[in-house]
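Run folding on both entries below.
>entry_1
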Amino acid sequence: MDALNYLGLLVSILLIIIYKLNSRRIQHKNLPPSPPSVPIIGHFHLLIKTPIHQALTNFSNEYGPIFLLRLGSRPTLVLSSRTAIEQCFPKNDIIFSNRPLLPSRKKLEYNHTITAPYGDHWRMWRRFSVIEIFSERRLQMSSEIRNEETRFMVKHLYKNSFKGVTKVDVKTLFHLLAFNMAMKMVAGKRYFEYEELLEDSETTKGKLDDLVEMFSPLLTVSLGDYFPFLRWLTYYGEERRLLKIHKRKNEFMQALIDNAHDQNTSSSTSVNGQKTSQTIIDVMLKLRETEPEIYTDDLIKGTIQLMLIAGTHSTVTTMEWVVSRLLSHPDVFQNARDEIDNQVRSSRLINDTDLAKLPYLNCIISETARLSPGGILEMRESSEDCTVGEYHIPRGTQLLVDGRHVHRDPGLWTEPDRFKPERFLESEEEKGMFKSITFGIGRRKCPGVGLAMRIMALSIGSLIQCFDLEEARYESQGPLKTNMNKPEKIRSLEIVFRPREALNEVIAQL
């Protein structure tokens, strides 16, 4: 251990020297303004003392919409206005099309197969995902999966309402729904049974908690990624815990691949006796027959991981906020129900093909996403020197777009802090390209926007059509009082679902 301490001290001294030399090398460049920093640490201490969204707002107010932070060894450019974003994109789109390849995440991200630098490999995977997962044709082929899973959700909420089980944890319900949809697309089978969960089955809840833990976004920061001399230390802390979770996750996904392979990769998902598309695993295994060097186990597992993380976490979080918004805005809830009643009537349940005729419902989701906490895009990293506005940006600079600041800019939005879904019915394109950046920017923009919107609209629309949402409570804290302008996370949001009398007969036939 003494040897390691001496080695850490030596590396620290070398880093200070390198930091000073680099500072002298680029000090003649016109870098963006930056708060006072501490050697080695940079600005980490300023982000720890204050919630990050508030810290970024404070920096923006003092230094302008383009400023530079130093997070250990990684310089980070922050953009916090539409004008600043337009000065960077699309001009520097290719330059900022890389994601930082953080050492702690190499194994967790399967050798960065999906987060690979912009190039031939990434373009190949992007083309595959756009054509084989998120294209309009594929979304139509998977529509029955979404319809069936939504009906299962409605059916069991309805049944449980007559068993006295009226209060339901919304996050649990939406996680179950989203995981089942993603799993049927990925592997062709449902993973959870609604009835068991809603009857408070500890076994099923344990399965869900385990799956949520395995497929949660990597939100923690490993200090070893920003302070290389601490890599040996951080490896034995949080990183080792994540690797243990990764081992379980890897075994889970390997079992899915093995099962698909044992079925000769020819089985297709069957919904109500009708044949739909091959699963994502089936398609990738088929492609591996002719391109084994590309469609490796790492690429297949990286794709499954992406579907089960991106396809569940952000979707569930947004739907939870939508329900909370609807509870605090009964007029919006009624407007959405009126729209559904006018387009779908009460003789059947809403389905995937109805969504294009329900613009107000989609506006509710878009407005919720605009106002929801977070809104900060994933990091990018510059692959070469470039210019943003009047500033020089060195190669290897991380990019962080403060989406929350943009989404609440009074110069772009009328009454920006007000929940007003109808604003998305109005065309305001003349105000700029990057007004709403919920799903990202440029070549790395999320390709699954269409799928996510369909899942959320169908799920929320079904609840609005079929149930009255009478009450919501935090854990023994009385009636729900939401303040969506604050960044807190909803916790244990419970809803009382009461079947709507006009739809009783239709739901009972499910």
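>entry_2
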Amino acid sequence: MLSKYYLEALNLIDNNQDLLDDFGGCSENIIQLAENTLGVVYPKDYKDFLKTFGAGNFGSTEIYGLFKEDFANSGVPDSVWYTLLQRKKLNFPQNLVIIYDSSMGEVYCLNYHSLNQQGEPQITGYILGLAEEYQKNPVLYNSFGEFLLDMVTLELENE
């Protein structure tokens, strides 16, 4: 079952299609390949986002996702490509999957070591380039649905 936050975000997106620039949904096969590649199972809301939009922008807010299965030869906003790049480049933790880049050094991640009451990853922050012992990984959102609703709402407020 999809969360009320996610469904509310979808409703706002649907009512503001002019702000949406997405890749189109991706197949279940690509989603499974991504999960296997990263060693995770995506939460329901994020999986639906991937099936519906793939990845894309709502206004100036870019949400990372999936849009092709060749992760090694992809680029932004491919979540798998970017997460794997940071794992290789910065020894990025295996329990994190990047879904958003703040453009100020902090990325927002699905954190598989910080789960909500539904057993799904919460969204935590991670500062790229900061030594692991100094990372605080604050919980920014309880779920992907809450994150998406906040990003969409903030974008609409700035219109």
